[in-house]
Please model this.
Amino acid sequence: MKPILTTPAVAAALLAGMLAAAPAAAADYVQAEGSTLAFASRYDGELFTGRFQDFTTRLRFDPAKPAEGRLEVSIALASASTGNSDRDSTLRTSDFFDIGRHAQARYTASGFRKLPDGQYAADGTLELRGVSKPVTLTFSWDASGAQPVLNGRAVVQRLDFGVGGGDWADTKLIPNAVNVSTRVVFQPE
Model:
């Protein structure tokens, strides 16, 4: 009796089947058009929102192996826009973002956790105004469309980074907690 694997066609078919069944490796992604990075706070009790118009995101992620994930975000602080020119120019000053000395903010995280609700947590580090502090980004991952999308939320304690110092440090005027939200559309790197 002849062994089953003696023909090259059968061996090639089995090899192809094994490769197709192999688990997917982590994918590398870069930010695509349609991505947003927003923030919300209050000033004297009134809610205001803003966006960073210029930011870049790189991601390595496999939902089956979140601990191997990596996220890098660079943010041009001068691109902050709230729709109020006085507020926007104040954000650029040394009392807030101090863009003359610190033009960029950076967020990095290595290794994510899967949460019981199906979301993920990236326990990362935010570097802002020369200060580095831990910040956790909680996010969902949707790869069902043409391009995968990360929807995330974080809370940044602005005073930990010296944002809104001096007279602006009064948390009755501006709360310490700033809500950050992002929707990043990705494409393969």
Notes: Residues 1-24 have pLDDT under 50 and may be disordered. The CA atoms of residues 68 and 111 lie 5 Å apart.
